[in-house]
Structures are given as structure tokens and as C-alpha cells.
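Final report, closing paragraph on structural work. Over the funding period we assembled a curated collection of sequence-structure pairs, and we close with a single example.
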Amino acid sequence: MDRHDIDEWVASIRKEGGRACTCTEEYIDPFRPSMYIFQSVCADRFVRIESEGYDPFYCYFQPCFQKTAPLIVHTPGYGGEMSMHPELAQYFNVLHINPLGYTTPKGKDMSKMVMNNWGAVLPDTIRSGGESGYRTWLINCVMAVNWALAQDCVLKDRVSFFGTSQGGGAALLLGSVFNDITRATASDEPFLTNFKMAAFRGAYGMGRELYEDVPAETIERAIYLIDTVNHIHRFNFPILLTSGGKDDTCPPETVADLFERLPGTKSYTHFSYLPHGYNREFVQLAKAWFLIYA
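Its predicted structure, as stored:
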């Protein structure tokens, strides 16, 4: 495996994500909130995306108050949660993507939570040698980003990505997929980073029993394709990274090592007191980062 394999893999994701989709907007009912957080009727809305051969999935779109603004894309952690970002929608169009249909406006689809109430996207990736699992997950993201870029309120041909944990790793992978138009990424305690250094600790050991029978070369190929450190040659945009000193899920040394390898404009903040998970500190850093670069 080498750079050529990475380039082919991301090119196939970008191409497949450009397939025909049916996108249906569903405005929220402010009197029946499915999530107890700020919502804006007739502005913020869910978008259901369907394409033949793929499970339907949802996005949540928060248009900016300004007439046109850049697009920033948030992707979820491994639990498939959905989240809104009103503090960012003051400046940007914010698209939260929930790939694979794990979560809907009415709650989680528990039929897909097959791994002790978690999805099996990592084991599915490894069992398939990178041909499904995260490949499908990222294809869904491409479909959603293409929809958002076509909206009148979005500035064209410029997009940025951010997230925590799986969402942080995915932000970097999506930057790789869209590296011709990515303006910046921000990754908080990113998963999918430095599998070798992580050595199956924390999140990196999830679902190992589901691929014990898989040939070693298949496992190695899958991990190579989804590891953000193998996409560094495609990172031609500013990158913000954070880690937590009490993070037992995504070891902070894996993030620090990625930072040292990165070329170009970059920032790394280590919060010694933070455990794993969403945090206010990262959102404020990401907002400042995107105000400069998005």
C-alpha cells in the first residue's frame, strides 16, 4: 500500500458520491422537538438523502443569517449522534451529516446499533478491506456536501470540516476527499489516527471479535486506507488539532504525532484536564479557526 492506493480510494469515494440522489427537506416542528437544543423553524431543517443501493440517511442544515456564507460540515462521533451549532451559524452555513442512517429526526435506528448499541462501521471496514464501512460512510458525506454546495446561500467551491472523535478523524478524511476545495479542517481528539501507535487501545480495539477470522492482509489494507496519517500528502489546507490529557479513547500521543508530521499551516492544543468527548473549548477554537480560514 502506498500514496497511489490512497489517491485511488478517495477518488472513487468522490466519484461515487456524485451519483444521482433524491434529497427531501423536512422542516422541524418547534412544538415537538426531537432534540432539546436550539432549533429554528422554517430556517434550520433536516434533509433526507436517498440513492439506489444505499440506505437513506439524514443531515441537519443551519443556514447562516448572511445572504451567502461559507459552508462548514460537522460529522458525528461513533455513536451516530446529531448536534446543532447555533454559535457557528451566525457566521457560516452549518451542515451536520449523519451517515449510514444511524440517527433520524425521530431518534436512533436501533436496528443498526448491532455492536452493543454501537454501529459496526469500523469492523465492516476491516472485514471488507476498506470497500464498505467507512467508504460507504464517506460516500454518504459526499452526497450531502454536494447537496449543500448547491444551495443559494452557500458560497461555491469552498468547504471546511470539523468534528470530535470519529467526527474529527472523518473531518481529515473528508478534507482529503475534497482537497481541491477544502479551506480548513478542525479535529478534536480525532479517531482514525495513528492505528499503529494506538495499538488497539480505547476506540481502536472496538469490535475486534467481529474480524478475528479476516486475513491479515485484508485488515492491513483497510486500516491503511482509513488512517489519517496516510493522507498527509493530500493535506494542503490549514489543520487545527486538539487532544485531551484524560482521553482513554483516542490516545493524545496519536494526535501529537500527527501534528508533528503535518506540513503547512497547523495548530495543536492539548487540554490536560479533558476526558474524551465534545467540549466547549474546541468549539470556540474551531470558530476562530474558520473565521480566519473558511
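The first helix runs from residue 3 to 16. Residues 114 and 120 are 7 Å apart (CA to CA). We thank the funder for supporting this effort.
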